[in-house]
Write a structure and sequence with these properties.
By secondary structure, the chain is an alpha+beta fold. The protein is built from two helices and five strands; from the N terminus they run ββαββαβ. It has a single domain, classed as Cysteine protease Prp (Alpha-Beta Plaits), CATH 3.30.70. It has a five-stranded mixed sheet with strand order 3-4-2-1-5, with helices on one face. β3 and β4 form a beta hairpin.
Amino acid sequence: MTKVTVYKNNTGDITGFRCEDHAGFARAGRDIVCAAVSALVLNTINSIEKFTEDDFSGTQDEKNAVITFSLEPGYGRDSQLLLNSFVLGISNIMKENKKYLSITFEEV
């Protein structure tokens, strides 16, 4: 199961996320749940990099199937819009695939 943890601060802003594990919907190369989540994760990170001036950090561990993303202080509204869009997309995928995908929220 792919687990997405979304980090929010005390004002409700999304400050980052962690995505880990494979969905297990199908074998590698045919897992549409994993592909959809991966596309959303990478598109969100790439969009924040290209369309905002915000600084962020992240890690990618292919061996253990973990990607982390964290906004640096001073981020703008555009990053919040993109991160909320990410959460919307992940939530919609999860509605149809609860066995393969979970999303949780943590205050940081």
